[in-house]
Predict the 3D structure of the following.
Amino acid sequence: MFQVAIDGPSGAGKSTIARAVAKKLDFIYVDTGALYRAVGWAALSRDIDYHNVEQVMPMLSQISVDLVYINGIQAVLLNGVDVSEEIRLPQSSMAASGVSAHPCVRDFLLNTQREIAEKNNVIMDGRDIGTVVLPNAHVKIFLTASAEKRAQRRLIELEDKGIATTYHEVLDDMIKRDYNDSHRAVAPLKPADNAIIIDTSELDLEQSIDAVYTTICSIVEK
């Protein structure tokens, strides 16, 4: 199976770009961030302090998190219930950052991610795909953009969903998430040693998709 790992900070457009490129290549798209968001949402809905590993660990035995594909579209199930909308709320994003710092959560989700990659040609995105989850991926890309540009894009997404917030609130959350993800003790956010870095700050969506697609194809052709 051919494996493409795409890592990068929150709001870099990983999901949108990876999904589009996977469709062009007829690969399975795997949004691992959605798995962590689901665990974060599970903690929030149970009034669990997601920073407290002693509260989070017992919860893991009570939940199941699955990725399913309905008409080619990925959906996230938490204990069999579709939570694809709930996990995109801003509070779910912060909760995901919190729970992802716990080794027990990363171990809980690791096998799920690897099993999908063993059975399918995949484009998998997240924070530590190229460094931890799929260290032998055929292509490793680190997708990034400035915090300001990422906040602008995320604000538009939230407004389209009817979620009231401000640019400064989104930017503050983005900066906090970046710090948490890059400074955690376990699997911190960083480019793999052999990753290709693509900065989309000055690219529109179609240009970003083309940059990632062209990069993958150039390696496949070798």
Residues 3-220 form a domain with the Rossmann fold fold (CATH 3.40.50.300). The first strand starts at residue 3 and ends at 7. The chain has a mean pLDDT of 93.
